[in-house]
Amino acid sequence: MAKAAALSLFLLLLSFISGGTLKMVNGEKTWCVAKPSSDQATLLANINYACSQVDCRVLQRGCPCFSPDNLMNHASIAMNLYYQSRGRNHWNCCFQNSALIVTTDPSYGSCTYA
């Protein structure tokens, strides 16, 4: 168990060093989320771009992923929808270096990340 935790920490650190993207790890499922350090304008641009390419209806008021209603949450969901729809390639989770690929499912409540 300690080895798994150490490996996860190493991969997280590597993601910051390598520009915020990682390739799939041992065939594990991966998700694309917004970097916490991303500014509001970048997050909004990411939402607009991703949602121009994929169906983002899950972000609409009353839908499972609307809440919490903030740019970080909505950007992460939109960016992940784009990333998943394009085949989970590391280059599909760049978003001008404002994204991270994670191996822990970010789903919450009734909001399921694809």
UniProtKB/TrEMBL annotation:
Any single GO CC term annotated in Swiss-Prot or TrEMBL for this entry: side of membrane
Record's keyword annotation contains Glycoprotein: yes
Database matches in Pfam families: X8
Domain named X8: residues: 30-113
Keyword Signal recorded: yes
Membrane topology: Lipid-anchor; GPI-anchor
Subcellular compartments: Cell membrane
Main location: membrane
InterPro entries per the UniProt record, alphabetical: X8 (IPR012946), X8_dom_prot (IPR044788)
Leader peptide range in chain numbering: 1-27
Keywords recorded for this protein, A-Z: Glycoprotein, GPI-anchor, Lipoprotein, Membrane, Signal
Record protein name field: X8 domain-containing protein
Organism: Vitis rotundifolia
